[in-house]
Amino acid sequence: MNYKETEPQLKRVEVKDNFWSFYQELIRDVVLPYQEQILKDEIPGAEKSGAIQNLRIAAGMEEGVFYGQVFQDSDIWKWLEAVSYISNMEETGNLQEGAQQIIGLLERAQEEDGYLNTYFQLKEPDHKWQNLLECHELYCAGHLIEAAVADYKMTGKCRLLNPAIRLADLIDSRFGQGKVRGIPGHEEIELALLRLARATGEQRYFDLAGYFLAERGTEPNYFAEEQKKRDWVYWQMDPEERTYTQNHRPVRDQDSAEGHAVRAMYLYTAMADMAAAADDESLKAACRKIWKNVTEKRMYITGGVGSGAKGETFTVDYDLPNDRAYAETCAAVGLVFWARKMLNIALDGNYADVMERALYNGVLGGMGRDGRHFFYVNPLEVVPGISGQVPGYEHVRPVRPRWYACACCPPNIARLLASLGKYAWGEAPGFVYSHLYLGGIFHAAQNRISWKTVTDYPWEGRLLYEVYNSENEEQTALVIRIPGWCPSYSLSVNGKECTNGHENRQGYITIKRAWKKGDTVCLQLSMEIKRIYANLMVREDTGCIALMRGPLVYCIEEADNGTGQNALLLPAGSEVREYRKYDGALGDYVGLEADGLRLEDNRDALYSETPPREVNTRICAVPYFLWGNRQAGEMRVWIREK
Length: 642
Known about the structure:
7-stranded antiparallel sheet
């Protein structure tokens, strides 16, 4: 197969199904209005943002001083990006009005040469571009550029694109081959410049992204050289801690995931994007090596990455503690980004499987079903009284807070969930690719075919693809992923079982024909309940099992099973059953139940020669992404097996 895929224009994808429509409507009706109020400091009792206030001060419309983190601007830019994506839906007028007001502010705040960063404009005007290691100027610029490209793609208008281009041109005039040397301490500008290059057709943005990638990890150590030239610091980062910023080797020589997990995910996303676009075999090879290290040795079963709380980092192979897990929501979002770009390198179901795993578990779990509470950290075990309180566990929250002083995760979730279509579909001349399963309609522009999909996924495994409209009389291949978790499937075309005549390679099936309006493809995936065992090198999970059904990881909560979940045992021969339920806090979901055991004793002594007795009990599990939406209490993914 001659594989060269293009991600779809988001406005050509309509999402309409019971599962994802809920989340997209939640983003439109609750999440983005709520976040706008937060950014404007209009919600009493919530964590102060100060982001819009900073912009107003920089625009000369208020008096005051800068408030918040050095990267506070990026919260606004991610919010703007999400608003651009959600404009594909109806009834977004109020959000559009709010976005236009913010764009007006940033136009007034932007300096004549294109510079825009309220921290430096208000607090450190004489120190611009002097501390790339710590101060996120290029990171914030990248998020503005991403928002601008999204707005341009969705609306065709340049009001936000023009300021972003002015800022990008300023960066391009300063940094690059034969100019001032520099790389970002927090990657983001690289992937943003690649998006801008595609949107504008300007090769120099592509070249600048390539420069930032190629310069990372080279000698002399840029961050050490930079520090010698200044007499001030922000966080007192050690420039010789080179793995933290993925600056320890040139990117083509890297073979493991190191350092700050979110920075790493953004870097690897840009590397994969560049590798596919430039057909760069050495960069592809590096991406594959790092991917193998992450997914086979450093990723939680939920798709969470970055287990270390100190520095929000990758640590070492198989270090995946459950009750001290960090697994930042932004890192799971970044893993989805990276996986999608890996699919542009090669059509391999493994990439889409990980994308799906991170999306349904690591990302969705970061937001409550009310759209107003968010997790920064995503543990796989929570014990109130220890989690969030005992030293070493301070970062683990048993309930989702309303906001954060460092609020990168909430708008990151919003922009990803608002743009699902480009992760679900892809196309190339003669090919339409279905990577994720969304109900709705995809208008494949290159192939002039519109596909309507109907599904109750992830609760059920039936997927119906119908040709909604076709202006193409040539043969076109519909290429559908068969998930790695699926042991068997059946396929029919126009109601007739299809046992041969379709390719099944690298986790994808290919059905090629001249499609006509009304043609259907029905795929039935087996949704078996599975017991999952971790590699014995993951010592915390030895003797335990996790439950999965389809793409979903399950957990047990105190609301269903009471306290003392470490004393619950699931016998190896016990049947795990599924049930469908509606709960006011959890919505419509498929739960799991089994006959298990609970260890009990009546001892007051700390130690005893008397073993605990086993008592029969019922164990109930809910999808991991739904945990924490009821009462605060214990939660556990890995259950002891007898």
